[in-house]
Amino acid sequence: MAPEHHGDADPNAPPAPPTPLQAWEQRMQRAQALWQNGEQEFALAQLVQAIPLAHQLLRSPYLTVQPDDYLAAWVVTHLWIAELLAERQQLPAALDYLCDAHTALLGLGHSTEVTLLQQAAWRHQRETVQALLQWQRQHGPSARVTQLLQATHCAPPAAPPPTAPATAALQPEPLERCPLPADRLH
After folding, report:
1. What distance in Å separates the CA atoms of residue 74 and residue 52, rounded to the nearest whole number?
2. What radius of gyration, in Å, describes the C-alpha atoms of the chain?
3. Rounded to an integer, what distance in angstroms lies between the CA atom of residue 19 and that of residue 156?
4. Which segments carry the region annotation Disordered (predicted)?
5. What are 21-37's pLDDT values in tens digits?
6. Is residue 68 classed exposed, middle or buried when 0-12, 13-18 and 19+ CB atoms within 10 A define those classes?
7. What's phi and psi for 39, nearest 5 deg?
8. For an engineered disulfide with 109, which of 60, 82, 121, 167 has Cβ 3.0 to 4.6 Å away?
9. CB-based contacts of 119, cutoff 8 Å, min separation 6
10. Would you state the torsion angle of the CA atoms of residues 69, 183, 93, 27, taken in this order, to the nearest 10 degrees?
11. pTM, to two decimals
12. Which has the closest alpha carbon to 54: 78, 33, 34, 36?
């Protein structure tokens, strides 16, 4: 008796390759398993190999569809590498990863049109700002960190209430530099 087929899928066909996000997740799971087994060097190697996958996610056309997942991959990878490098006393390299994570989000968060991607970038900036502030507390002031923190903009004001004239909603207010409110840091 012949094997039964369900649908058009060939049961002998090789499985589809993982999506970039799935490949990133697999790499991160391997890094976490190594970390939990006390193999920090191998965990770091897995994380470094995850960086090209995170770059690929930022260039993906699906970034605007799944911005939170894709930006989380970017941020988590960079912050974890920075943490491991700092533990190894490789402070300049650790700072590079922290700054790269935040710089990419800054680039995505600046626009006169508020999009899902921009909102996700603002949400993830809370994590990178927190990491940069923690860096300053642990390692002292850094001109590079200070410059990045000063470049961080506050989210634009909420849309005008429905009673406001329609033309007001069409005029985007410019983003302005402002101190980071405490509630954006938690």
Report:
1. 10
2. 21
3. 34
4. 1-20, 157-186
5. 999 999 999 999 999 99
6. middle
7. -105, 70
8. 121
9. 67
10. -20
11. 0.73
12. 78
pLDDT digits (tens, 9 = 90+) for 60-77: 988 888 899 999 999 999
DSSP letter for 177, please.
B
Using DSSP, state whether 133 is helix, strand or coil. Answer: helix
Q: Give the span between the Cα atoms of 145 and 105, in whole angstroms.
A: 14
User: Can you read off the two tokens belonging to residue 87?
Assistant: 């533990």
Instruction: List, for residues 90-115, the tens digit of each pLDDT value.
Output: 999 999 999 999 999 998 877 666 68
Half-sphere exposure of 86 (CA within 13 A, CB side): 18
In which residue are the tokens 């890094």 written? 31
At 48, list the tokens. Answer: 């470094």
Residues with Cβ within 8 Å of residue 52, at least 6 apart in sequence: none
Q: What structural domains does the chain harbor?
A: 20-152 (1.25.40)
Token pair belonging to 24: 């990133």
- Candidates 102, 120, 104, 126; CA nearest to 182 is 126
